[in-house]
């Protein structure tokens, strides 16, 4: 950025001046501009490669149902569950399977995520205020509402968002459903996703003998 600014200033001064050194100053400005653009391109490429090479920030493998540690939270009536944390609809994007940008079957800005003492719930947003974007619904997309009991979650990953400029992260869950395994990804701003990750880990419990969370 310094080279870009310096090159721009030199180029402007060169063409604004009327001295014999105009060609030298203009040449230095152009060289500085090219060097700045080249270094900026390298920096962006390195940032993207880091995200591609290390997409997973943290991961937890959970125990089988018969070896799960007791939750630190007491049991609650399912009809009156306490909501430990919630976020959305602004910025929330949900899809089945691993997250990828521009999948047309996402649901965007239409979902409120709630984490109770026993489950994760994805609820359709019912109110849109002045600063809330309209929902984008696709007939072939994720059906709402849906819920994932913590006891059915097999593994949980905190992943970087595939966009190198997004201030977001992705919560990737694998869970048991109808006798098989299913995956779902939830993308949102980093603070909300990290809070959701820690909440599920704290409530669900991890594999006995693993020494706690299994970080990757």
Notes on the structure:
It is a single chain. By secondary structure, the protein is an alpha+beta fold. The protein has two domains: 2-50; 54-204, PH-domain like. Helix content is 29%, strand content 28%. The chain contains three helices and ten strands. The chain has helices spanning 2-16, 22-53, 190-204; strands at 56-61, 83-87, 93-96, 107-108, 111-116, 119-124, 146-149, 153-160, 168-177, 180-189. The strands form two sheets. A six-stranded antiparallel sheet has the order 1-8-9-10-3-4, with helices on one face. A hairpin with a 7-residue loop joins strand 8 and strand 9. It starts with a helix and ends in a 12-residue tail after the last helix.
Which blocks of ≥5 consecutive residues have pLDDT under 50? 66-78, 207-216
Task: Assign the CATH topology of the largest domain.
Answer: PH-domain like
Q: How would you state the average pLDDT, rounded?
A: 75
Helix content: 25-40%
Largest sheet: spatial strand order: 1-8-9-10-3-4
**Can you identify the CATH superfamily of the largest domain?**
Pleckstrin-homology domain (PH domain)/Phosphotyrosine-binding domain (PTB)
Number of helices: 3
Strand content: 25-35%
Q: Cα-atom Rg, whole angstroms?
A: 24 Å
CATH class bucket of the largest domain: Mainly Beta
> Helix/strand-derived class?
alpha+beta
Mind describing the biggest β-sheet? 6 strands, antiparallel
SSE succession: HHEEEEEEEEEEH
Give the name of the CATH architecture of the largest domain: Roll
Morphology: elongated
Q: Please give the number of β-strands.
A: 10
Terminal CA distance reads 34 Å
Q: Structurally, how many domains make up the residues?
A: 2
